[in-house]
Design brief:
The chain is α+β, with helices and mostly antiparallel strands. The protein has 3 helices and 5 strands. It has a 5-stranded mixed β-sheet with strand order 1-2-3-4-5, with helices on both faces. The longest helix is centred in the C-terminal third of the chain and has 27 residues. About 20% of the residues are buried.
Length: about 170
């Protein structure tokens, strides 16, 4: 089983974390929260990708475009992303939408949000299908893949928040 990543939300497929989510308060979030959440999400996606790859390599050859997905919400805007590895980790934007909070343009915004989520769900479903169709690996191939993935650096510590000192 893979090492768990801590986020505000996690979507599983079996024991794999296929979707990680970070979000802030919708009203009056701290200005630096957006960048902290994006950093935390990227880091968690990378660590989750490595952990899942290690788990997969114990039994099968991983799909060619092995990926994990994420979402980051700040105020009313949500960004949907995908992370894969092609020599370097690549973070690709998939979509974005604005959460409808007021009556003004509610129907259009809700429609766009639902479509964005459906497109993400379709990509995740394709990823799950590719993983399930993975070929069993020979013993030699499993050793080779395990050795290669063992060299991938993982995050050594969890980010910490500065403690406020009361006066």
């Amino acid at each position: 089983m893979e090492q768990g990543q801590f986020c505000d939300g996690v979507g599983f497929c079996g024991s794999d974390q296929i979707l990680l989510a970070e979000s802030s308060q919708i009203h009056n979030p701290k200005a630096d929260k957006e960048f902290q959440d994006e950093y935390k999400l990227i880091r968690a996606l990378r660590d989750s990708w490595i952990s899942q790859m290690k788990s997969t390599c114990r039994e099968a050859e991983p799909p060619r475009d092995f990926a994990v997905f994420g979402s980051c919400t700040f105020k009313e805007q949500t960004k949907l992303v995908m992370m894969d590895f092609q020599g370097v980790f690549r973070l690709s934007p998939i979509d974005m939408f604005v959460i409808p909070l007021e009556k003004k343009e509610f129907g259009r915004r809700m429609h766009m949000a639902v479509l964005a989520c459906l497109r993400l769900a379709y990509r995740i479903e394709q990823e799950i299908s590719r993983r399930r169709a993975a070929m069993l690996a020979t013993f030699e191939k499993r050793l080779e893949m395990t050795e290669a993935i063992r060299k991938a650096p993982t995050t050594s510590s969890t980010p910490t928040k500065l403690k406020k000192i009361r006066k």
